[in-house]
Amino acid sequence: MHITSPSFKANARAALADAPLQRALGNLRAGFPGKRAAAVARLPEFEALRDAARDLKNHILEHLDFYLETFEANVKQHGGQVHWARDAEEARQIILGLCQQAGAKTVTKGKSMITEEIGLNDYLAQHGIEPIETDLGEYILQLRGEHPSHIIAPAIHVNLDQVSDAFHAHHGRYGKTERQTEPRQLMNEAREILRDKFLAADVGITGANFCIAETGTTVIVTNEGNGDLTQTLPRVHIAVTSIEKVVPTLEDATLLHRLLSRSATGQEIEVYGTWSSGPRRPGDPDGPSEYHVVLLDNGRSNMLGSEFQDMLRCIRCSACMNHCPVYGAIGGHAYGWVYPGPMGSVLTPQFIGIENAANLPNASTFCGRCESVCPVRIPLPKLMRHWRAREYEKHLTPQGFRFGLGVWAWCVRRPALYRRLTRIGACVLKVLGGKTGRIRSLPLAGGWTAWRDLPAPQGRTFFEQWAERRPGGGR
């Protein structure tokens, strides 16, 4: 995937001016947050489950090596193989080798953000293997030549008329010449075409929501059933996932499972949950003859023991972006890489470098909604502040910002002067606000006032109030 994170500001401006995108984002704002709230309200123990999940994930990260080795041993015991990939290039080579070994010409894929992270589709195509996305949203994007803008609803930025355009442009080669415009018709058309792809595929590639150490099982949750068909019909099943997805037991997986569905889509449980524990055994009616798990590191082990370790608790539910006012205004593509929203503002600098993603930790109002809805209580604003500090240390912040912060620091080290200046500044802003209490334009604050009014200060300054309330003060 081409990285455009350094162009975040330009991407955001383009997104704000994109009328079809804004129409599609309106559906997001009206959908997922309300459904999540309703699902949570029906589960009185939801907050206790969040605490338990946070503690479980912290325990796993403290003993990650043990659980990964246990998972590998149990996969092998059931006839599967585990492949360790240090980075994206190594993961691509491993997967390509397995596909070539199977003589694959076509590969069906279930939804997997890890394969987006490593750029697998383009890599396979370059080596003569056709990857076919089977998740409906991913399939639509593949026809449109786009990447996901959301981790569970990849085509959330696409409107119905745009889906109709894509199908009409590409399905003529399958004899589908009549333009369909109704959701049910479009879904049936995609199902009919993908059915033959499922049957012809030599290899099926999926992600994994969880890897269960005690049984060597990978779990994938979907609402379409494409995960089942991708894993059971081809001769070879390859699950591509990352090292932090391991959990100790089946019971632990069900704990996270209860949080995932409610946080992601507001469902009490997803429609399909597929649990794979090795290749087909004698007597099994279906299943692959080979089962492989590719475990990707790609910088995650460097997060262990660092100030960013909490991010490894993430279960990829998307609640943070569903509730983020910035994501809701500009969508996912503006973030310029695989992971958008608050989670992407923390993960992307880790994976591609803060030099290439310095804008992302600053793309937040710090309203705290992301942390308040995270099912495993990741302190996302705190982690973004850590990246802002790294950005400042590397002198990546704009010169004007650094100059302004330097002036503020010089003043604040002189308390008497600082108090006088804040008092004068508050009075000036109050006058500029006039009767409305809103400032429409202000020198050096164009980045704010170009898009919204600046509230003028009301009442007394903090120092004035503190002088009255402290012991020995005015009251």
TrEMBL record:
Gene Ontology MF: a single term: 4 iron, 4 sulfur cluster binding
Pfam family name, one: Fer4_8
Keyword Plastid attached: no
UniProt domain 4Fe-4S ferredoxin-type: residue ranges: 305-335
Biological process according to GO: lactate metabolic process
Keyword field contains Disulfide bond: no
Keywords carried by this UniProt record: 4Fe-4S, Electron transport, Iron, Iron-sulfur, Metal-binding, Repeat, Transport
InterPro entries in the cross-refs: 4Fe4S_Fe-S-bd, 4Fe4S_Fe_S_CS, FTHF_cligase-like_sf, Helical_ferredxn, LUD_dom, LutB/LldF, NagB/RpiA_transferase-like
Name the UniProt record assigns to this protein: L-lactate dehydrogenase complex protein LldF
Originating organism: Plasticicumulans lactativorans
